[in-house]
Amino acid sequence: MHTGEQYHKFILNSPRDQAVRDSFQKMALDLLPAGADVLDFGAGTGIDAKAYAANGHLTFVYEPSKAMYECLEQHCRDEIASKTIVAVAPPLNCKVQAVTANFAVLDHFADHTQLFEELSRVVQQGGFVLASMLNPYYLGDARYGWWRANVIKLMRHGRYAIPSESGVHRFAPQVVARAAAPHFRLERLIPRGLGWATHLYMFLLFRRL
């Protein structure tokens, strides 16, 4: 488990993770209207937040891990000083056009119903939530015993949990979509088709109703 500066260096030097991050950032920035405010939920060390701020978006950050946030403070010190990046804590007292949650932040929740209820008070009508979550159908995980042991649960219930320190869960997209309703609808899902077998992450775009 990487935390703080270790995670920051690891993620920046991983070509696979960097490709995922680049795709996520591009999707988020393409969707954001010029000058729109954004909340980076589970901001980690601030890599995405820094990119949003650099593109003219006032960026609120929520990061519950002390180690991660301390690294964020260093990585984004200029943006924090200029107040283009602003830290928030629960209850989330900001109003934004979009919420982003990159690299499986939402996989740490056992149920998303209460979270989407809270986010509905943060995201303006017509705005969006964009999340990258672990793909439960990724065949690269089939080599692991925990994946094979949970296939039946996934097919029956659309979800399963893996016993671990981080408490990571896997969800079928429709399970998350049901939790998001009635405040959000699932508007876009990536990948499609054969991509389900080859992509570790899936991107889910929810539109605020």
UniProtKB/TrEMBL annotation:
<dbReference type="GO" id="GO:0102208">
    <property type="term" value="F:2-polyprenyl-6-hydroxyphenol methylase activity"/>
</dbReference>
<keyword id="KW-0489">Methyltransferase</keyword>
<dbReference type="GO" id="GO:0032259">
    <property type="term" value="P:methylation"/>
</dbReference>
<dbReference type="GO" id="GO:0061542">
    <property type="term" value="F:3-demethylubiquinol 3-O-methyltransferase activity"/>
</dbReference>
<keyword id="KW-0808">Transferase</keyword>
<protein>
    <submittedName>
        <fullName>Class I SAM-dependent methyltransferase</fullName>
        <ecNumber>2.1.1.222</ecNumber>
        <ecNumber>2.1.1.64</ecNumber>
    </submittedName>
</protein>
<dbReference type="InterPro" id="IPR029063">
    <property type="entry name" value="SAM-dependent_MTases_sf"/>
</dbReference>
<dbReference type="Pfam" id="PF13489">
    <property type="entry name" value="Methyltransf_23"/>
</dbReference>
